[in-house]
Amino acid sequence: MHHVDHLAAAADAGHPDLFIKYLHWARTLLKSYNVHPGDLDVQLETLSDVIAAQISPPDVACHVTGIIKTALSALPGNSVSEEVVCRPAELSALARAYLDCLLRQDTDQAIELVSAAASSGIPLKTLYLDVVQTVQHEVGRLWQSNQISVAQEHYSTSVAQTILGHLYTMIPKPLQPANRTAVCACISNEQHDLGMRIVSDFLYMSGWKSLYLGSNTPTDAIIAAIRHHNPQLLALSVTSLPHLQQLKSLVERVRQEPAPDLKIIVGGYPFNVSPELWTKVGADGHARDANGAAEWANEKFPEF
Description:
This protein is α/β, with parallel strands linked by helices.
């Protein structure tokens, strides 16, 4: 069913590359649990046969089976993609030390390490992106490759949230109230909120009044926040591919509100895989990271 959910989302979006990326991830995960990579190929071939036989109209079945065929041809035989196995970049010495604290489950030392780095003059944005967020990506890779447990991954996320709260208190406070407002949220059922929290803090650093609504925010709550705060910017995040349709429905709801000056920016893994995907969900733009989101927002709404 996980395969089907991701296949359906990629087909609906018209971006086969999203399904290919998912399969790279799934193949690595399965291999870490001693499932032969070829088993995934058999699953997909069987799924394709069932779709061809049972889905109508035929052009829809042909479209979806074509995505499966493209994905199978893109997978590197029975090996696991090096792109997935290896880290995209080496961790800095500080990031490695922080990761070691997390793996030892030494909460106090992890917090002290990042706090001391901030006090020594390392820029807050560097600590946000190159330490906390980068290490969180590495934690995810370790879980995916079955080197740490779900409990360890959840613990690391909890410590990261604590540290982000501490770093927020170290952001220089504005001398006067902000005249631009942003509402930042993860849509309903989206639990991965670390990236959006960082986006919210970067907007605050850039002179915005930034209201972070957190993970798993119901659509009605987001609409209510827009009505109450009348923001210039709505920032939304999706990490899981099957949540794209829900995001699209949310954007459609927001567009029905009397907020002509509101701009919507989206982010998250699917949008980084397919940079033009933001147009399919009806947003005004996309950013790969928190720096990009703040730059985009400031370009659209200079301080006034």
